[in-house]
Write a structure and sequence with these properties.
alpha/beta, 12 strands
Length: 354
């Protein structure tokens, strides 16, 4: 039995689905079901006895210990987090509560549970904390990519809260001996992505005939990682990672945002042409950049390849085609996640930027 926290979110849901495709080991899926948590992403698991959903906050100091005592997991994969930079600018307190206080409370619950296991169970137990490359700050165009030894320099409330959670996880290993692992990933994309992030927002807006808003000059560079590759990396780290170590997970796909948007438009031009036969690129608009926008992230993923034999299976060309096709094939899912609260959020974030 394993626990997955945040398993109804984008990466978490993909991980649960992939895990149960690869293993018969059951999953207890713990999610608070905030705006980005969506049980529809797990609809194919309805009736599957290997999947148990628990509606809970990782910071709940009563319910989490009860779940741990009831199910006795051998591993916990912690995806639970507030994870959007723009939202952190508007509402930083939510990020402190979930990513810092919530992670602390979860660690305390897990430490108490782990401390009562027998010696073999203690040795076999794993707590994997999923983090982000944004904790490392921003790179100049010609600087080498982030390694696991790069200094932390978070530049947004989101990345600062994730950096704090990373440090807490590390401290629980060095202070209490808790068997932890940490992964820092680059920008994920793929199925079930909530349409506030760049790629799903561009797809959804393009099909709806809306503008495609690009911050600043669109030259912000990110390393893009197909979500299913990320899931396979996490499985490998849980299986064979060295305790207390951090592993950077990247896709080796550095691209500026404007190139990403043009690629999405080209695929939509091919797969779902506009009625007027014009390119979706005509819907591109440049809007005022967000505050403190990091210029470049890049992951050096050689450590995980060298030590654990993992590398991504998808190129950006193969992954982005699969992603666009998934959104075209799953319009009902897209429509259902676009609730009134989501529309209000888009208005809050993009109004007045043009």
């Amino acid at each position: 039995m394993i626990f997955v926290t945040g398993g109804a979110g984008f990466i978490g849901a993909n991980f649960v689905l992939d895990w149960l495709q690869e293993h018969d080991e059951p999953v207890v899926n713990i999610d608070k079901l905030t705006y980005a948590g969506n049980l529809e992403s797990l609809a194919t698991l309805k009736g599957d006895s290997r999947h148990t959903f628990a509606h809970a906050d990782i910071g709940d100091t009563v319910l989490i210990p009860e779940l741990l005592a009831k199910y006795q997991p051998r591993a916990i994969i912690n995806f639970a987090a507030e994870s959007h930079v723009d939202r952190s600018i508007h509402s930083p307190e939510d990020f402190i509560q979930t990513n810092v206080v919530g992670t602390f409370n979860l660690l305390e619950s897990v430490r108490a549970y782990w401390g009562k296991l027998d010696e073999q169970e203690k040795a076999d137990f794993r707590f994997l904390h999923v983090s982000t490359d944004e904790v490392y700050g921003s790179l100049a165009k010609d600087e080498p990519a982030f390694t696991e030894l790069h200094q932390y320099e978070p530049n947004s409330p989101y990345s600062a809260s994730k950096a704090a959670s990373d440090h807490l996880v590390r401290s629980y290993h060095h202070t209490y001996g808790l068997p932890v692992l940490t992964t820092n990933c680059s920008n994920n994309y793929g199925p079930y992505h909530f349409p506030e992030k760049l790629i799903p927002l561009m797809i959804v807006n393009a099909l709806a005939g809306k503008s495609l808003p690009i911050y600043g000059d669109g030259q912000q560079i990110r390393d893009w990682l197909y979500v299913k590759d990320h899931c396979s990396a996490i499985r490998r780290v849980v299986e064979a990672g060295t305790l207390g170590e951090t592993y950077n997970v990247g896709g080796w796909n550095e691209k500026p945002n404007i190139e990403i948007v043009h690629t999405v438009c080209a695929l939509l031009d091919e797969l779902r042409p506009r009625d007027d036969k014009k390119s979706y690129t005509e819907q591109i608009t440049f809007v005022t950049d967000r505050l403190g926008h990091d210029r470049r992230y890049a992951i050096d993923a050689r450590k995980i390849e060298r030590e654990l034999g993992w590398k991504p299976a998808e190129t950006f060309d193969t992954g982005i085609r699969k992603t666009v096709q998934w959104y075209l094939d799953n319009q009902e899912w897209v429509a259902n996640v676009q609730s009134g609260s989501y529309r209000d959020w888009v208005e809050t974030n993009y109004a007045g930027r043009s």
